[in-house]
Amino acid sequence: MEAIGHAGTCLGIIAEDGVLLAAERRNVHKLLDEGYFSDKIYKLHDNMACSVAGITSDANVLTNELRLIAQRYSLQYQEPIPCEQLVSWLCDIKQAYTQYGGLRPFGVSILYMGWDKHYGFQLYQSDPSGNYGGWKATCIGNNSSAAISMLKQEYKSEGVKLAEAMKLAVKVLSKSLDITKLTHEKVELATLTRDGNSCKITIMTATDVQKLIDEYEADEAKASAEKKEKEKASKS
Amino acid sequence: MSIMSYNGGDVIAMMGKNCVAIACDRRFGIQAQTVSTDFDKIFEMGPKLFVGLPGLATDTQTVAQRLKFRLNLYTLRENRAMKPKTFMSVVSNLLYEKRFGPYFIEPVVAGLDPKTNEPFICSLDLIGCPMVTDDFVVSGTASEQMYGMCESLWQPDLGPDDLFETISQALMNAVDRDAVSGWSAKDYVIEADKVTIKTLKARMD
């Protein structure tokens, strides 16, 4: 749990027409080889993706296992695995590591986003103990408590579209991250939407992420300018 | 009564100029009786990768599902589309795993390389022996008829439209001479930017 508290922030938000996951990319080192396309966000199946916070090697083992579980279900039932079942299956495995064998638990918290025909868009969070819960918006990792309190104030459960949710995600991330300025290299954003009869998982490109950040900063600048105007007006 | 001709069915794949075509008949029968006329034996495994699985129908379905399983995991882990040559190895491995109790199908793989768009066709036997050719591959109950038709009709470097005509004629005339194949055909012509699927109404018997 300690390792997770220091790991890169991940947050997830459900909107009316989709779900999104945003993650802070910690490993922005000049010498690091940019082989990877996605650092923290993993596609699990056509209808589910996840984001991890904690010990990366443990996370790799778990995401691999999640993909296998999803495929096995798909092979047996010829339909995509319902989201809660995937989460619950993995959590059973995680729990076993806390009770049997003398092994240590997996030091990872995972945020899952998905769609299924039973419950629509869903967001789940699981932790090393094997506990999981369904959320409308949540955050794990560094400064997650600050982010959660901000989400509590700003999140509206009715009538929020994905675009608005993305703006909210950028806002919350920029306020809760340790760095001063948000750039597209530090943030990974992925969305899951329904396109007709199938799910679409999109990992946003650097340019799109930068656009969102720029929009947010423009809004912020406007808001602080307006505030200053008001203060000046009230003083005079 | 051979188990490979219990359900009946055929698949041909041909190589063209920067394109490949794969075609199958659509009959599903139980020995002499026809049960369904829309049983396709070609499955899409990737945007430019198709596999045809003629033979015992239950194995057609099972192998297609198991192949998709392996291909999905590969795509998720490696973050890229599988090359046709690699896919051939996956099929071969899957079939050899059942060396002493095999799946009764003789697959045909056709596709374009995801990056270079180089065309590729190959066929395998029921225990996974791969055979890569640069002209055509056939598999099914009317394989002898198909070999004859392809040998006479095929030429190298056919464009997509000519390839479509050639593979259609080859398949239709071959299955017309086979009692357990037919009931219309489905053709897939795979090019770098699109896949054209056409259903052909032939002798509906």
Model description:
The complex is a heterodimer of chains A (236) and B (205). With 236 residues, chain A is an alpha+beta fold. Chain A is built from six helices and ten strands; from the N terminus they run H-E-E-E-E-H-H-E-E-E-E-H-H-E-E-H. Chain A has a five-stranded antiparallel beta sheet with strand order 8-1-2-9-10. A five-stranded antiparallel beta sheet of chain A has the order 3-4-5-6-7. In chain A, strand 5 and strand 6 form a beta hairpin. In chain A, helix 2 (56-77) crosses helix 3, helix 4 runs antiparallel to helix 5 (162-176) and helix 5 (162-176) crosses helix 6. The longest helix of chain A has 30 residues, at 206-235. Chain A is globular, with a radius of gyration of 19 Å. The model of chain A has no long low-confidence stretch (mean pLDDT 86). Chain B contains four helices and twelve strands, in the order E-E-E-E-E-E-H-H-E-E-E-E-H-H-E-E. With 205 residues, chain B is α+β, with helices and mostly antiparallel strands. Helix content of chain B is 31%, strand content 30%. In chain B, a hairpin with a 3-residue loop joins strand 11 and strand 12 (195-200). The longest helix of chain B has 22 residues, at 57-78. In chain B, the strands form three sheets. A five-stranded antiparallel beta sheet of chain B has the order 10-1-2-11-12, with helices on one face. In chain B, strands 5-6-7-8-9 form a five-stranded antiparallel beta sheet, with helices on one face. The two termini of chain B are 21 Å apart. The A-B interface holds A 37-38, 42-45, 64, 67-68, 71-72, 74-75, 78 and B 65-66, 68-69, 72-73, 76-77, 79.
Strand-residue proportion of chain A: 25-35%
Query: Helix share of residues of chain A?
Result: 40-55%
Question: Based on the structure, what is the oligomeric state of the protein chains?
Answer: heterodimer
Tally of DSSP helical segments of chain A: 6
The arrangement of helices and strands of chain A along the chain is: HEEEEHHEEEEHHEEH
Overall geometry of chain B: globular
The general outline of chain A is: globular
pLDDT under 50 segments of chain B (min length 5)?
none
- End-to-end CA span of chain B: 21 Å
Count of distinct strands of chain B? 12
- On the 0 to 100 scale, the average pLDDT of chain A is 86
Largest interface: A-B, 14 and 9 residues
Total number of beta strands of chain A: 10
If strands are numbered along the chain, what order do they take across the biggest sheet of chain A? 8-1-2-9-10
The proportion of residues in beta strands of chain B is 25-35%
